[in-house]
Specification:
The protein has 371 residues and is α/β, with parallel strands linked by helices. The chain is built from 14 helices and eight strands.
Amino acid sequence: MLALVARRGAAPAPRADTRFDVIVPAHDEEAGIAETVRSLLAIAYPPERFRVIVVADNCTDATAERARSAGARVMERVDPVHRGKGYALAAAFDASASEGFADAVVVVDADTVVTPNLLGAFAARIAGGVEAMQAEYGVRNATASWRTRLIVIAFALFHTTRSLARERLRLSCGLRGNGMCFTHALLRRVPHRAASIVEDIEFGVALGLAGVRVAYVDEAEVLGEMPAQASAARTQRERWEGGRAALARAHVPMLLRHGVERRDRVALDLAADLLVPPLTWLALASLGGTMVSLYVAHRGGSIAEPAAWIVSLVALAIYIARGVQLSGLGARAVLDLAWAPVYALWKLALLFTPRRRRTTEWVRTARGGDA
């Protein structure tokens, strides 16, 4: 269903009547912070109506100096106890509110470049009454390796396809951590106090419980750099999936109860989204179930069960095909999918290797551009 209803609608005309603080949380990002700041300062928006603020959080390198040299304001934060992106954002949001310059805050990661229409698109949504938004999230180093090309397809599935569908259904598209926008009016009602390793999902849950829908701003895009090597990808994947699973255990019962009692379909959809396993597991389960049921049917069992499994495989194939179409990789994406079994085996291997200690600390992920 998501694949069938995922269509881009007409975007509202950009506006320039909202004042923004663009917050860039950064931990030891001296290598690329200047390029990110330059990309943000080049946004097509009146320069007197937005500020770029880099939060140099517990940095041990020259992140702050390079951000200042590139033209950003810098907020240096040293707190050995409350470490992590969630704490950095909370501090920056509070500082922005106390200074009184901005009507809204935008969050952009320190390895990211943005399209020039980012703030104009957010301002248009705010003028229409929207208080929480998420821009399109793409991959900056898409051609770095087969792994990053698969990430492009995965983002087209998980971010673009699902978010377009949810926007059409007036559900919450969810927060991705990069390219988020919140009005200060909203943050006064629902303060950002999410501190887990998946602080974006955690705050999205808080917004859902408060009755706030996150709108999808698909005409504007942020492009982040993804890990191209297996070791860095493993670290990032363990943090994401471990944090997501912990969040599901903690919040799904609350979301379900809230959704049923208040007949709130946004909360119910958020609960369902947290319960959906990663696509790799869904694909392996569908394939395995189909093979087993076909064998049982061949041995004289009912054909109804394999038919149901085959339908699930077809539905999954349609969903993946839509993601490939939206990925922008063209015909090359079909060839890139040949690496999917390798990726699936890699994820299976992660299940049987010792996991690193869970932490909410900010651990910088090595990326494709690192030396």
